[in-house]
Amino acid sequence: MIDSFIPAPDTQRQMREALGLFATGVTVVTCMTPRGPMGITVNSFTSVSMDPPLILWCPAKASRRHDAMASASNFALHIMGEDQDEVALGFTRTAEAFDGFDWITSDKDVPLIENCPARFECHIRDRIDAGDHTVIIGHVDRVTTTPATPRVFMAGNWGNFLHQD
User: Fold this and answer.
1) Predicted confidence (pLDDT) at residue 137 exceeds the cutoff of 90
2) What percent of the chain stands above pLDDT 70?
3) Which of 3, 14, 49, 152 could be 54's S-S partner, Cβ–Cβ 3.0 to 4.6 Å?
4) pLDDT (average), residues 38-58
């Protein structure tokens, strides 16, 4: 059955389900705030440019973490591994979910989660108003990778990608 609709307030659930058909990675963004280290689990992440090295992510304005995250000068975006589900889930519940896993502080005072498949340490280049979200473009200052397997999210479920050689 083919389903077609016009995006509107009464079709928001359908819109969310349609967007959910695109597989994404699971990421956690961290920064330092006046109240201490903060993190948030997000899947609104993408590469923007290789030269200069830019990435973006989009916090919802309705989030209680939005203002602190959007006003930080520096942040780290962590691609989460399949063995880091509890870390990612912890940041869906609270901004201060730093207990129970290894993390360090960068030279720019950003909390860094250890042993992620990839971590991008950034300074904010641009903040763009975009409806009910803010687009945050970060200039990548440092990248750290490990051989861990990344977690994948699609249609409301977490999984992993089976790589074929």
Assistant:
1) yes
2) 97
3) 49
4) 94
CA–CA dist 130, 112 (Å, integer): 27
pLDDT at position 20 over 80: no
Q: What value does the mean pLDDT take over residues 133-147?
A: 96
